[in-house]
Design a protein that fits this description.
single chain; five-stranded mixed β-sheet; two-stranded antiparallel ribbon; elongated
Length: 136
């Protein structure tokens, strides 16, 4: 059986913990704009992070299947946003609390702060996770 793995959009970072939790991170950094920093915007990366909930797609050539598992392998997904300070505004909280993703702010002094814990991935497939761990 020949398998292919699709990760579209591409994954920035995958962490596998000692207890086999699989955590995916989408990272949005700071850009320079006219000699001043342009910090990650509120929605930047949200769509990509939501797509991680269903990744990776595992396909078989014979029999031809597009998605061998109905659900993703990751236990948790996080959006990491570069910010000038750790400040989680109310309008951001209202939206991000509706989404099944976690949010981390990264500030210039190197500090990372989880401002919203990621819930368990609601679309996770235990079979996809097992397959992913067995085929690293």
């Amino acid at each position: 059986m020949e398998l292919s793995y699709w990760c579209v959009p591409d994954l920035d970072v995958i962490e596998i913990t000692k207890d086999n939790k699989i955590i995916a991170y989408e990272i949005k950094g700071v850009r320079k704009r006219k000699n001043s920093p342009k910090w990650s915007s509120f929605y930047e990366g949200t769509g990509q992070t939501l797509a991680y909930l269903n990744l990776p797609y595992v396909t078989e050539k014979e029999p031809k299947t597009f998605d061998k598992f109905s659900g993703g392998a990751f236990d948790f997904v996080y959006l990491v946003l570069a910010r000038d300070k750790i400040e989680f505004k109310e309008y951001e909280k209202r939206i991000f609390h509706l989404l099944p993703i976690g949010v981390i702010f990264a500030i210039p002094n190197g500090e990372f702060k989880i401002v919203k814990d990621a819930p368990q991935n609601p679309t996770q497939s235990k079979e996809a996770k097992r397959h992913f761990l067995n085929n690293l």
